[in-house]
Fold:
Amino acid sequence: MSAPAFSLGMLSLQDVPWPVLVERARRAEALGFDVFWLADHFVNPYAPRGPWYEGWTSLAGVAVATEHIRVGPLVTSNTLRNPALLARMAMTVDHISAGRLELGIGPGGAPLDYSMLGLPTWPPRERVDRLEESLGVLVQLLEGGEAHVAGRYHRIDEAVLAPLPIQRPRPPITVGALGPRAIEVAARYADSWNTYGVAEGRSATGHIAHADALAAAAKRVALLDAACDRVGRDRSSVRRSYLSFRGILEPIGTPSDFAAMVDDFRSLGFSQLSLYWPGSPEEEEALEAVAREIFPALG
Structure:
């Protein structure tokens, strides 16, 4: 599970025609991104009647269409699948991608994921508790090929997984976590912890000013450090990953602007930065300039 000193991810929503999505993945690979991420909801939360490909199925297709960029969900909604089934899906995509899967997962919570699938609207605390139990199942199956769990939310009777994933002991796990309880789950299970630009809770757009985003991220880093101490985890063993809204809700900016943003997050201990696919041709051009001038120096 070794990782570069600093890595870059690109997240594309799967709300475009399939050939466009494939071209985005290939372009991200050519630009020098390390990971190509997709979302995981039943529908697009902001345009529920619009086009939307299923996330994990799309990951398999993207894996076939690319050569070396890593692929993963940012992040899997734990509310949507039984963890034993998710383990088999992850193993399958790991093989399809020749060992390039990044397994992102979080507690979920998009309201339409519940209503459209007929699921109970679990409160935040229960969603996090379910996530923790699911992670225990995932780790058992992906690492050892067997799981037997009589938990509060899942009963897994002697589930088996074969073949095992290509990546050993398993594909890296990224846990998306904003609040203290979810961050503690990340401290227990995650190879990488991901957060993004919201302040005290989720806003309608998920976006706040850069300075406020940094301040909120710093508070969450402190929560992660404290959680690692409580569970006996080496702080440095959990990669810190940040999802920025540059290119979709705010400009990517000049290469020097981008370099300054990277420095800001590096100063907080983040070693991975992911962006949304740009929302305009102008922002795509800005991304090209950043990739040419900044990416080669970020190792």
Q: What stands out?
A: The chain is about 40% helix and 20% strand.
